[in-house]
Amino acid sequence: MTEHPEVTPTPRPGSRLAEQTHAAADDQVDVMAISPVREEGMLEESTADSPFGPDIVAKAKDLIGRYPQSRSALLPMLHLVQSVQGFVSQEGITFCAEQLDLSEAEVSAVVTFYTMYKRKPCGEHLVSVCTNTLCAALGGDAIYRRLAEHLGEDGRPLGHEEVAGTPGERGSVMLEHAECLAACDLAPVLQVNYEYFDKQTEESAVELVDALRRGEKPQPSRGAPLADFKSVELQLAGFFPEEEDAYRADVDGPSRAVETVRGAQLAADRGWTAPSMPDDAPLPEVEAK
Ligand code: FES
């Protein structure tokens, strides 16, 4: 297990955004006056050292162009940031705030709300073990405990969102416990970079993470082939290969399990259908804004 590198907050330019932060916090407290972002030298250094080069800025502009209001691009843009750094750093928050004309406080509020945005560098792979009720009862808790012990070092189990190996390097694995992954019929499940591995046991889960640690990419139970965390983040941001074959190879795969469609199959076999919606069903009033 490797210590996570210290994340050094970087200053952010933009007096207008500074004013927004100030106003949002409290007119009595000059937030920016007590912030190191006023140091001009630091601002120049931040720009020069930014990990978000022209290609990423172009992608950010592309995302913004997809929405009527720029702030609506925040969620995909945070995935874009993760595709570059493997997590949302303070620099990433600053980048999003600047691109979207938001305050850093607004961006931070979103980042810290959603568990898919990581504040610490992720491994090449993110292993999410469902420990919600059904999976837990069927072995999910035991799987998580076993993986934590297996991936830990010196008798200390790996903690939630800690990484075995060096974050970002080949074979590194971040472990997390997850809430219901919407595959209860295939419990206990885990995901690697959001691809499903169904009906796991402690042994199959250990075999899986061992393969990941060796740099292999086992085939998920269904869905797309396994990719690394950063590549998946780029897809989640909404960027795919332009060429059709390459696109299909990235995203296609068997997407349904027999268990999931069992009810629909039984209904079809027995000729059961749901009553159709009447054409004249009244629709609820829509309030004019
Ligand atoms: S409880 Fe694990 S997928 Fe629903």
TrEMBL record:
It comes from the Bacteria. One of its GO terms (molecular function) is 2 iron, 2 sulfur cluster binding. The keyword Iron applies. Residues 1-23, 263-289 are annotated as: Disordered. Keywords: 2Fe-2S, Iron, Iron-sulfur, Metal-binding. InterPro entries: NuoE_dom (IPR042128), NuoE_N (IPR041921), Thioredoxin-like_sf (IPR036249). The keyword Iron applies. Its cofactor is [2Fe-2S] cluster. Belongs to the complex I 24 kDa subunit family. This is NADH dehydrogenase subunit E. It comes from Prauserella shujinwangii.
